Structures are given as C-alpha cells and as structure tokens.
Amino acid sequence: RGQASLVLSGGKSPVPFLRALAQQPLHWPAVQVTLADERWVDPGSSDSNEHLLRETLLRGAAAAARFITLKSAEATAAEALAGRSAALAAMPRPFDAVVLGMGDDGHTASLFPGAAGTLEALDPDGQPQLAAITSPAAPHPRISLTLAALLDTRGIYLQIQGAAKRAVYERALSGEDGAGLPIAAVLRQRRVAVQVYLVA
Asked: Model-level pTM?
C-alpha cells in the first residue's frame, strides 16, 4: 500500500531496540509511527513516551517518519479521546506491527489491572480506539490504545525482560491464575499472531 504503520511502546526496556531500529535503511518518509500509550504530561517531559521516541528513534534519517502523537492540549486524556482517535484513524490499517512491553503487574500499554477504564478497554470487539486510564499504581493519568485497536494489526511483538517479568508472563499463560492480568488478553486471543521475545 506504499505506507507502513507502526505502534511502539515506551519505558526503559525498548531503548536498545528503538536505537537499533533508527539505524535501519527504511524509506522513513513512508512510515507512520504512534505509541501504544502515553502519560498525560508535556511531550518535553522525561516521563513522556513521545520524548523517549524523539530521543531514541526519531533521529537522523528516521526523523522523516510521520509521528502521530497521543498527547494534545486538552487538560485531560478523557477530553482528548475524540480528537486523538480521529488522528489515529488516518493511519493505514491494519497496523503493520504493534510492539508491546509488559510491567511487573501484567499491564501492557497503559491497561493496568484494576484501573478505572481498563475493563472496558479490554473488550476485543469494542469500538473505542483509545481509553483514558487512571491507576493508583501508576504515576500520571494515561491515554492508551484499547485491546481492539492493538489487535488491528498484522503482528504483535512482545518483549519480556528479566526473571520477574518472565514469571508474570508464565502466569498470564496459565489457566485462571493469570486471567486478571491485562497481558493475558493479548496472549490468549486468536485474532493475530503474537511473537514473544524473552530477554535475560
């Protein structure tokens, strides 16, 4: 289709991957990039996932990629849902790749277990593409792609780093014990293939 669409995640774990990706000889002007989630902070903040991408991926030749931000001028993530959903709708679908991470609590993107907004956002057939998420376990309010949006892709790539996260990953795969972990909704669905990379 002449364009590629890529959904990436923030955090510390993907930094080496993002820096390596920036060096790939791609036709970057034809690549559209967005985030799986964002903290509701200024994009210049060190807590911002957008800031992380601009420091690691969107540099040199890769800076020619078109970045679709999840952060806007509205005071809250909830107020921004309509506008940011419209911006995402312009990206080629299905996404070519969704790259996810996972927290020690089994969250992925900003879909935190027990957080306000997460249960609705985990509906694989839901219509909303974005959700406003607030979790007492996480700093800052968040905006996150919903499970339905994350599954609208040709492939999901999940990085699990360290023994603690590997144990959570194994829980998510195992019967009812891991059913309450948001990452389990990604791993157990059969709509799109998930490739998991276990890193020591």
From this structure: 0.96
